[in-house]
User: Fold these one by one.
Assistant:
Number 1:
Amino acid sequence: MKLRNLLLRLLLGAVCLLVFNEFIVYYLVLLECQWPTKPLPVNGLEPVKVMLLSDTHLLGPIHGHWFDRLRREWQMHRAFQSAMTLFQPEAVFLLGDVFDEGNWVNQKEFDSYVDRFRKLFHTPTGTQLHSIVGNHDIGFHYATHPYLVHRFQKNFNNTGVSLTSIRGVNFVSINSIAMEGDGCQLCETAEKELRAVSTIFKCGRGIGQCKNVPKLEEYSRPVVLQHFPMYRDSDKVCEEHDTPEVKLYRERWEVISKESTDLIGELLNPRLAFSGHSHNYCHVVKNRLGIEEYTLASFSWRNKNNPSFILAQISPKEHTVSRCQMPVESTIITIYLVGSIVLVITSLLRLGGFLAQLRIFSHGRREYKKLTK
């Protein structure tokens, strides 16, 4: 009976260790993060609460191992859903590379990809979810195809340049793959859309011919959202960064080109930018356009030992930003190792005590039999 109790205690300890590391730890770590200071309302419009993340890289059937996929997707699911519960943002923007093999899989596999994504990152009623396209979703510029662009567009409605306005805050999502400027159909379409959005902002200021041009709810300089960062030489210009090694960036590979950066600045005159792609966090106080830019770390533990995301409160005139750290992978592994060792040692000690009692009992029985003969 005591051995059975010992096994039950060992099982209970293992379950508690599992529940802590796979459920509770996400809430404990994320509780250390808070919404940044609230900007003042503008014309009676409250600031918009936004959560931003990037590079989820859901593993595919070609290079993704089933256990790696299961582990990483569970981690991202718990982190995301815990954040939804704790922070309840009004809008969530995923800044590209939703998938890891989106440009390689066939249609059936892509449909399965989309279903998994919607289950892992479902949002409650009242929270908008916007997914921006990245190079792992449709391929780099030299490798993409209209078919790949179309199927991402069909499911996420975002493969060019689009404008999303929420209470006077204007978000412009840009397809970095289409910012090559070489005259290809994808690039020409994106530039045309960019100029159309530029016209909307000019008309918001009362400039130009504005007949049949959509009207802004409230004019404010836009917030640019894209997968590739604006042009910069490296992360040396970052006020804050967590890259383990600072390397030089190549135009059109790690960042968009100088020309595309300048074109966005000329046409949109943005006030703030968010990007991803590098898998590392970087905060630039003044980028090439002279505006603040945040490059987000990857949301996946497969790419980052210490993933993070951003909470921002944005009004038509101001913004405040808070970076939220997620559980550190090495810390979770350490907790598992230490917890397992403690469970084994305490179990062995209890087992040793049980065996000692069993020996004493057996010895007593033998002595009793000798006396009764």
Note: The longest helix spans residues 329-372.
Number 2:
Amino acid sequence: MDTVSGEIDRSGICLCVLCGLPAAGKSTLVRTLPSYTRKKGWRIFILSYDEIIPEEAYELRKENDALMDTQSSWKSYRQEVLQCLDAFLQSQNAPVCANRGEAWARFERVAQDQQVLKASDDSLRQMSHIKSEPLFVLLDDNFYYPSMRYEVYQLAKKHSLGFCQIYLRCPLNVCLTRNRMRGCPLPDEVIVEMAKRIEPPNPLKNTWEQKSLTLTSTIDFSQQDIELLIQLLGAALENPLTPIQDNTEQKEADRQSCASSIVHQADQACRRLVSQAMRDAKECKWTASNMKSLAAELNQLKTKFLEDLRKQVLQGYPICPGETINVELVVSRAVSVFDQEKNYIMRKYSTEPVKHL
């Protein structure tokens, strides 16, 4: 078979999203799958977000209530991964530009290790793809919100690629046990909170999630699981998406963008209110026990409030292409509701009136 340097045969590429809780079995699956796909002449490119996103981003996420994908810092890292993948897909008949930054350097190393991306003799990075062998890009991350997965779907649509999703359903207690045995385990509370928020693929609600498969991960994957997965990959490969978007998809994209903007701004305003409440409580010399309880309940209120706000925006604002929403007004009204709830909690924990600066 001939290897064509600098050319990607995009008609034979499929993007596959792996989603599920941390320690649900995604890494086990991607280690198992290649032995089966090789028999069909398929190539696998495992794109693990953990290998592309720098470690300090995870620390930032833990400290700043990371389960909200609206946080600009964390979201920007995820966007960089997709930008690298986009560059990989569109670098046809041309060397891939070097010096794309730290994210690209990490992406490049991962791709070279898997022999998907290689350097030519003149040291310019170039793509290498065997035309007769379909390539499946497995994006390995939690992808707990549909909006995260929809971005990959849009990328597949942009390049007329196949697209599918695999959701690994695993009992929370099993995920916690597996996570504790890892070299660098996540805090239990991160996984517990993510379990409350994860939204599995829902083909009945989202037409773009039609090609999705749910596998139950406990001890291992059965032969039947693998066969169903191979069938899904084959169906997605044979039915690539078209770049023409209809009104329904454009409206969905607009709703997601609007929701992200509103929730992000509300998140920042709520954080300021919580910080001010803690300063007021400290000035009034609340007990350490009350301060701790207050902080926990306010943070819980903020997380639930933002989650509900996102859902309300998505369901309550049917946006047509070209329409705009007064985001500032929506945020202002929403934050005023949060402020009332915050004041109620303050009164519940206070032993004397709180001084407002």
Note: The two ends are 74 Å apart (CA to CA).
Number 3:
Amino acid sequence: MYKLSINLLLFAAVLQITFALKEGECEVCVKTVEKFAATLSDNVKNDPKKIEAEFKKFCKGSKNKENRFCYYLGGLEESATGILGELSKPLSWSMPADKICEKLKKKDAQICDLRFDKQIDLNNVDLKKLKVRDLKKILNDWDEICDGCIEKTDFIKRIEELKPKYMGRSDL
């Protein structure tokens, strides 16, 4: 009996290590849950239903990978499914973001497949060496458009025009 209980404990420890997140894994989930949790007031933190309502509000202003994360959880109107309870209940218990993301990963593995895009340092990058997709991303991150842009040089010219306006910001 004693040997069986030791084996069970060992097996449980191995399972815990297997399901634990590795460094850098689930980065969008962890960062988004931490960011969202920081917005919650004390009267909301202990009520899962209020947390879910606040998460839906939070998701309305989300962009890029955070928006995709919201979609997967059911925080957007257009979300096909909803597993908000898997976020709200653990948050109401003050569970850490990485542990919440471990639980979410078990429900939907694609949540942990989300990765943030690499950051572009506009001070040190040669725009001519970037791909058009990256140039479009810079403009999109600035909430700017490039009317009539067809050639790569058109996008570069537009970014150069807007650089003085956005270089003080730190979101790129």
Note: Residues 10-19 have pLDDT under 50 and may be disordered.
Number 4:
Amino acid sequence: MNGTSGLNSQSSLINTSNSGVIHSPTSMKVENISRATTSKENTRDSSEDLLDLKGKVESRLLSMWNNVKFGWTVKLKTTFSKESPVWLLGRCYHRKLSPSGSLESSTEIGTEATAHNPMEQIYGEGIEGFKSDFVSRIWMTYRREFPIMSGSTFTTDCGWGCMLRSGQMLLAQALVCHFLGRSWRWLPDRTIQNAREFQEDCLHRMIIKWFGDKSSVNSPLSIHQMVNLGEALGKKPGDWYGPASVAHCLKAVMNAASKENYEFDNLEVYVAQESTVYVQDVHSLCQLPNGAWKSLILLVPVKLGTDKLNLIYGPCLTSLLTLDFCIGIIGGRPKHSLYFVGYQDDRLIHLDPHYCQEMVDVWQPNFSLQSFHCRSPRKMPISKMDPSCCIGFYLATQHDFETFVNVIKSFLIPQGISSSSNEYPIFSINYGSRNTIMDPPQIRYSIYESEPNWATTAVQDSDTDLESEEFVLV
């Protein structure tokens, strides 16, 4: 290309010299200056084009590499015990369909939590009910070939967007509860039969469209929008996020979305500060002048150890997953974000965003829903969990919030520690307002100390210690 350009330039000069036109010295000076200026501009444009091309090539190569790296070409099997109950976001599933089924393998706190649930909810559906419930959760993963993010050359979030995707899954679960209800199920092979099923399909698709992978007012919860608003947190496209940063980012995108979408008018997001929920602040946020109450997405970033999870908190975390208003936990293992939705015995069940898929154009009629639902649950020993995480709750009414405040304390104190002690809870409930406290409580570890664990660019993702793909009862 450069050789052709040079020949054309020389040909142009020859034609000019042979044209027989005589130039004055002044006009020749002006012409030379003009040529020099044009040459500089062409050089600058060429440099910018080369940089742009270089960025696109690098992005494409990175996408190709991540497609291989995060393609899940090796399929493993996840084993589920026939003897132990499986918990999934407040619902319990068991092979044994009678109340005589043993719950001995669940944690003491988790067993205690079953007292708040109807017996048919605990035993009524069996392991097939778990499969249906799990596949109905919305799955957000790495995507490739989406529109370039503003201020970058990224056309994929492979290798850096896993915590943002985990946050999207947590938020999507809250929206499913808000618009469809916790008992809603997605049946992939079902033919729509009536008006109710048609409406549910429309709501299902509407929620997914909000997370579409491009900058658009129709997708206010997209990763593009999250990255854009993340700049206020000091993040650039391609930076890693910690659970606390994602919690604040989710609040920011929901606040922005509510200005353009009336569907969010009755929904608020509260992020706990210093691992403390301030009841009065929640009332100020959700209580309307006419006495009405907005539904609440409550996000609580916590850090439960230094370099490793303090295992004393393991039973507390699993017990929280037995609560019907829990929408899951975002965290993972070090430098590998996951979205935890349940557990069996000492293993956490999760959805993994580390799977690179092609972008889906969710603005097309009847777009495919298959890639937004995972049929392959994964499990991870709770001992491998990173201590930094964010716990989510969806509280639809004021009564739900008051119930949460009244019952949650018993789930926050580790076993073996006096319930009257407030020294070591996972997080705290304060009945006042944060603004009225002169010196906020000194939490054991600042939630922001966890960020370096997630902010390393030289990360080596590995799924070799994870189980995946099929249900196998043993």
Note: The longest helix spans residues 25-69.
